[in-house]
Write a structure and sequence with these properties.
This protein has 487 residues and is an alpha/beta fold. The chain folds into two domains: 349 residues, TIM Barrel (Alpha-Beta Barrel); 113 residues, no CATH class. It has 20 helices and 18 strands. The strands form five sheets. Strands 6-5-4-11-10-9 form a six-stranded parallel sheet. Keywords: Glycosyltransferase, Metal-binding, Transferase, tRNA processing, Zinc.
Length: 487
């Protein structure tokens, strides 16, 4: 049987893919707008114009309301919602997390999702919240895993999702993901992460995503449940998430909130509309605030912004500049910056998936010094064999012919062969005055290169004072810029 998920482009641990469903193929990463069967701020049939290829709704809400249930069973889910593309259905786990119980069991809700024609169904998992006792997390994991296997036994032609739970215990997330990936599931949602996003705990969210990804096959499509704010898409995609869903576009609109990639504003406080979507180009701030259709207009704007950002993310993947976009977006909020810093702790893991580069490395701040490309270069230092007289310099000197090798020095990489100057990543665009973090990493790499080549005699021409220069001075002749670097 051919795979239902085909990866076509990659950057960092992110990818563009094609997910096959009964109702057609969708391109990932993408957003699944949440559609409430009872209250629809925007008709599902209109969601296509924003860019929606797939939507998600709650099968438990439909199941509990006799009128909706009868129509869904007789006419089908797609007719009920008036949407001709793929539809994913949740099982009632959200209601279970909020109210503590639901009026249906796992087997019954799986059969119901299949009977109404859901394209991707979800078992009734236990969404264990963050920071619970480990005993509770392990106990609820057993139930979730048991229900997932039960759902697999009932599976027919519907794609089946297997939620990865485990609270805020990375080892439980990884173990569960590994056990689930051995079975025949189609999509792997990361569950119970909404509380982390609501409290801006992006560092913990990064831990959850990476731990889960480590346990899953790299070929598995991953769904980040409840993640619908555009400001965090690039980070989540760079870590390997493919599907996102959220009702934020409608919930925020109801509260008078205006979404941007830099955060969310209350519309009553806006003097200008910093957007070029159809809503914002046909209204000024005062008109939007006073409009009788304000909620609907805000929902439209929020969707336009949401899908525009996902297109931005996909374009970055195509051109190989996703990490630059991540750094830009994560500097819009201190807690997102915490998430970026935590993600860089996993540079070694990300580097495994980083494809051959296609764009220019842009240095945009201290975090850039810890990017996977810098780590990759450090691993390659052992490939250089240097003997004789070696000059390391940042700018061309007059007497370079006196040396056997001339290495260029560029933070955050350090010393590298001059012949590689025009190749990636050494053709990087960097600041004229390197910051402390960039210089530190570059000097650490240079020291390691010296230690790996004990037979070489190094001369290092430097411009900036740094504590590591003392160590380098024990291994190389130091020359201040402007002096002659005699061999």
């Amino acid at each position: 049987m051919p795979p239902i998920f085909e990866i076509t482009h990659k950057d960092c641990a992110g990818r563009i893919g094609r997910l096959e469903t009964r109702k057609g193929t969708i391109e990932t990463p993408t957003i699944m707008p949440v559609v409430n069967p009872n209250i629809q701020t925007i008709k599902p049939s209109e969601l296509r114009k924003f860019g929606a290829e797939i939507i998600i709704t709650n099968s438990y809400i439909i199941f509990r309301k006799p009128e909706l249930k009868d129509r869904a069973l007789s006419e089908g889910l797609h007719s009920l919602l008036d949407f001709d593309g793929p539809i994913m259905t949740d099982s009632g786990s959200y209601q279970l997390s909020v109210y503590g119980q639901v009026e249906v069991d796992n087997a019954r809700i799986i059969r119901f999702q299949q009977d109404i024609g859901s394209d991707i169904g979800v078992p009734l998992d236990i969404p264990t919240p963050p920071d619970v006792a480990r005993e509770r997390a392990e106990s609820e994991l057993e139930i979730t895993f048991s229900r997932a296997k039960e759902a697999l036994g009932l599976k027919k032609d519907m794609l089946l999702a297997a939620p990865v739970q485990g609270s805020t215990f990375p080892d439980l997330r990884e173990r569960t993901a590994r056990e689930l990936s051995r079975l025949d599931f189609d999509v792997y949602p990361l569950g119970a992460v909404v509380p982390l996003m609501e409290s801006y705990r992006y560092s913990d969210l990064v831990d959850v995503i990476v731990a889960s990804k480590k346990g899953l096959s790299p070929a598995s499509p991953v769904h980040l449940f409840g993640a619908g704010h555009p400001m965090m898409f690039s980070l989540a995609v760079a870590l390997g998430c493919d599907l996102f869903d959220s009702a934020s576009y409608a919930l925020y609109a109801k509260e008078g909130r205006y979404m941007t990639v830099r955060g969310t504003y209350h519309v009553d406080k806006l003097h200008y509309l910093p957007c070029s979507c159809p809503v914002c180009t046909s209204h000024d701030a005062d008109e939007l605030i006073k409009s009788e259709n304000r909620e609907e207009l805000l929902a439209h704007h929020n969707l336009y912004v949401t899908f525009a950002e996902m297109r931005e993310v996909k374009q970055a993947i195509k051109e190989g500049s996703l990490w630059e976009l991540v750094e830009q977006r994560c500097r819009t909020h201190p807690h997102l910056l915490n998430g970026l810093k935590r993600a860089l702790c996993y540079s070694d893991w990300i580097e495994q998936f980083q494809p051959a580069p296609r764009s220019t490395f842009f240095y945009s701040g201290p975090e850039s010094a810890l990017r996977p490309e810098v780590l990759r270069y450090r691993k390659k230092l052992k490939n250089f064999e240097l003997k004789g007289r070696v000059l390391i310099r940042a700018h061309r000197l007059d007497n370079e012919d006196d040396f056997d090798y001339v290495l260029d020095f560029k933070p955050p990489f350090g010393a590298y062969p001059l012949e590689l100057k025009e190749t990636y990543p050494f053709n990087a665009e960097v600041t004229d005055e390197p910051d402390h973090e960039s210089l530190t990493v570059a000097l650490q790499n240079t020291l390691e290169l010296m230690e790996l080549n004990p037979e070489a005699e190094f001369t290092f021409v430097y411009e900036t004072e740094h504590p590591l220069m003392e160590k380098i001075g024990r291994r190389a002749k130091l020359v201040v810029k402007g002096e002659t670097a005699h061999s």
